[in-house]
Amino acid sequence: MFVLGPNQLRRFYQGGAEIAGFRGTGGAQDGPEDWVASTTVAFGEQQAGLSRLPDGRMLADAIGQQPAWFLGPEHVAAYGTDTGLLVKLLDAGQRLPVHCHPDQRYSRANLGGQHGKTEAWIVLRTSGPDTCVYLGFREEIPATVLARWVATQDVAALVGALHKVPVAPGHSVLVPAGTPHAIGPGVFLAELQEPTDLSILLEWRGFLDDAADAGSLGLGYPRALAAVDRAGWSPARLAGLHRAPAPPGAGAGITRLLPPAADPFFQAELLQAGPLRAGVEPGVPAGYAVWVVFSGTGTLVTEHGGTLPVRRGMTVLVPYADGAARLSGDVQVIRCLPPRPVTA
After folding, report:
1. Which residue, 48, 72, 160, 169, could crosslink 42 as a Cys pair with Cβ 3.0–4.6 Å?
2. d(Cα 326, Cα 300) in Å, to the nearest integer?
3. In-domain check, residue 260
4. H or E element: which one contains 147?
C-alpha cells in the first residue's frame, strides 16, 4: 500500500481550499485539482500531473518496471502498462466553463491517442445555496448555432441550453465523452476519468486569454466542435447517469456507485464499515485500486501489504500484489478501479 500526498495543479479556474481542508493540510490553495495515482501528463506539459510514490519514484516508472505486481496479470494482458484510470480531487471554487471532452474514436482520429475522456463525479461536499452541475443539451443544437455561440461567447445561451442538475454529498454522475457540461461553484468531488487531459472549452472568455489553441486542443474550433454531442438529452437519459446516495442508516457493505455504462472505462464502489454493524468488515478481491477515504477513521488490512490506519482525506494506492483487502472501523471509502478486463 502506498499513501499518496497532494499532487495539486494550478488550472484556469479557482479552487483549492476544499482540497486542503479535506486532506488536513491547512489553508494552502495550491490548485483546484489534486491528481491522485496519476500516470497522466497535463496537456501541453512535460511532467506536470505525474504522481510520485513515497520513495520518490514516479508511479508511471514503477508500473513500467513491475506491471503485473501493480496491475495484475489479467489487466496487463488486456491493457499492458496502461492503468486506464486517473482519479482527481476537484474543488470548483467558481463555476467551471462549459466544455466537453473527446471520445476514444475522435481522439484516435484527430489527436493520435487511444483514450478519450469519459469521466464520473462523486460529490464529497457542497457549499452554497444552489449547488448543481450542468449536463447535456436539453434540445438538439444545430452545428451552426453552436459554432455561433462559441465564436461570440454567448455564455447565457450555452449555460441556458444545458440541463441543470442539483447535487449533494454522495451523489454520483457519469459524464460520457462528448457531453457538454460544467460544474457549479461550491461542489467538491472525486473524479474518475480516462487517463488524459483533453478538454474542449466551449466557454473560454474569462478563463483563457487566447482560446484559439489551448481551448480547442490545438485543432481549431471548426474541427474541435465535431467532438461535441449536440443531441437533446431526455430526462430518462439524464436519470440513467445520475444516482443519489444510499439512505442514512443503510449500514456496512459495498455499494456500486456508477451505472453499468461506466464499466468499459472505470468502476467505483463505496465501502462502509460503520458502527451500525460494527462486526462487518467489507472484503474486496485483489486488484489495482485508488482508495479515497471519504469520512471517519478505520483500518485497511491486505493479505500481503500489511495494516494501515486510515482517516478522512487520505488517498491510498493498493496494488494487485497486496491481495484481498478488508476495511474496518467507523469509516467510508470510495474505491476507484480501472476498467475490468474483458475476457472472451
Report:
1. 48
2. 6
3. no
4. helix 143-152
Structural domain of residue 47, as residue ranges?
Answer: 2-53+83-243
Nearest by Cα to 186 from 174, 169, 198: 169
Name residues whose C-beta falls within 8 Å of residue 244's C-beta, 6 or more positions apart in sequence: 170, 171
Interatomic CA distance for residues 310 and 37, integer angstroms:
17
Cα distances (Å, whole numbers) of residue 86 to 42, 244, 264, 326, 343: 11, 23, 14, 23, 23
Q: Write out the chain's pLDDT in tens, 344 residues.
A: 999 999 999 888 888 999 999 999 876 667 999 999 999 999 888 899 999 999 999 999 999 999 999 999 999 999 999 999 999 999 999 999 999 999 999 999 999 999 999 999 999 999 988 899 999 999 999 999 999 999 999 999 999 999 999 999 999 999 999 999 999 999 999 999 999 999 999 999 888 877 666 799 999 999 999 999 999 999 999 999 998 876 555 556 889 999 999 999 999 999 987 554 444 466 899 999 999 999 999 999 999 989 999 999 999 999 999 999 999 999 999 999 999 887 54
Q: Is residue 70 part of a domain?
A: no
Asked whether residue 65 is domain-assigned, the answer is no
- Is residue 68 included in any domain, yes or no? no
For the chain, the domain total comes to 1
Is the pTM higher than 0.70? The answer reads yes
Alpha carbon distances (Å) from 343 to 262, 284, 285, 337, 339 = 17, 20, 18, 17, 12
